[in-house]
Amino acid sequence: MEQLYALSDVVAHPAVWPEPFSRVPLEAAAFARPVVGTRIGGTPEAVEDKSTGLLVERSDAPALAHALEELLANGELRLSLGRQASETVLRKFSEDRVVADLLAAYGKARS
Which of 107, 105, 108, 45 is CA-nearest to residue 35? Predict the structure, then answer.
């Protein structure tokens, strides 16, 4: 998968059902690739619209195509969103952060 992310300019994640939390947007962000995803399930938590990628409504194929075309045509926007995605995934979803959050949650549960 690493080689595929490294070769891609944009990652499409058009979920149609409310996935609780998909790894695809986080993996793409780790490679500084912006994601075009749908506003459903956990995707909006992983993809911040117009900050780390673009979000469209589910099952809206024309909007999905337009968002992909926009990013493919605008290298500056694509690189900016990819950089912000990478920074965000490190800040919010790094191993250290996830472990610290889990330990804090377990600590509260024990109280």
Answer: 45
Provide the number of structural domains found in the chain. 1
Given a contact cutoff of 8 angstroms between Cβ atoms, the answer to whether 96 and 39 are in contact is no
35-76: pLDDT as tens digits: 999 999 999 999 999 999 999 999 999 999 999 999 999 999
Under a CB-based contact definition with an 8 Å cutoff, are residues 71 and 45 in contact?
no
Residues 6+ apart with CB under 8 A from 30: 5, 86, 89
CATH number at residue 105: 3.40.50.2000
What range does the domain containing 39 cover? 2-110
User: Looking at residue 48, what DSSP letter applies?
Assistant: -
* pTM for this predicted structure: 0.87
